[in-house]
Amino acid sequence: MAEEKRVNLKAKKFEQYTSANKMDFFVKNEVHDEADTVVFQSNIQVEGQTIPMGIITDSTIYTIIRVQVGSKLVKESNKNKFLEYLNTLNRSYKVFKYVAADDGSVFLDACLPSTNDSFDPEIVRVVLDVVVDHLNSEYKNIMKEAWN
After folding, report:
1. Segment 53-77 mean pLDDT
2. CA–CA separation, 11 vs 36, rounded Å?
3. What letter would DSSP give residue 94?
4. Quick one: pLDDT at residue 96?
5. Distances in Å between the alpha carbon of 117 and those of 8, 17, 32, 101, 114?
6. In which band, very low, low, confident or very high, does the pLDDT at 11 lie, cut at 50, 70 and 90?
7. How far is CA 102 from CA 80, 91, 145, in A?
8. I want to staple 105 with a disulfide (CB 3.0 to 4.6 A). Which of 60, 99, 101, 126 is the partner?
9. Would you say 109 and 126 are in contact if contact means Cβ atoms under 8 Å apart?
10. What are phi and psi of 143, to 5 degrees?
11. Dihedral class, residue 99 (left if φ above 0, else alpha if ψ from -120 to 50, else beta)
């Protein structure tokens, strides 16, 4: 028996939501992969900096809001102290987590589970607003820790 291919209906719902709400600051990028991934790319302004972000939808139950907080922030000279600082932030917030990549880049990820039917673009928008508010209050502290 052939396995049924799941499709990504969340992208269409999110695109309709952004259009209806005049949110014209997203660029849609269809990845054309096995998971039918569609990324809605944009930027957010924090402390005078333009930070790239994306909303990643696919055929899984997960939608990811990913913000690239900075490149090469984790270095050998600050690794232990900075990662402990990020872990402290992670213990303080439920809806998102900080992740350090192998190249030292730091991302803030929010994972929103839903089926195609239960996907709610308004929840994505609310969580994105929470992320932006958080970064507006914490970004300078994160950068201070990174450069100490």
Report:
1. 96
2. 9
3. S
4. 94
5. 11, 15, 22, 32, 8
6. very high
7. 14, 21, 18
8. 101
9. no
10. -65, -40
11. beta
Distances (CA, A) of 138 to 15, 96, 98, 107, 131: 30, 13, 12, 14, 10
Sequence-separated (6 or more) residues with CB below 8 Å from residue 143: 47, 70, 73
CA distance 40 to 123: 15
Candidates 90, 43, 87; CA nearest to 69 is: 43
Confirm if 63 and 112 have CB atoms less than 8 A apart: yes
Q: What confidence tens digit (pLDDT) does each residue in 66-92 have?
A: 999 999 999 999 999 999 999 999 999
Asked if pLDDT for residue 97 goes beyond 60, the answer is: yes
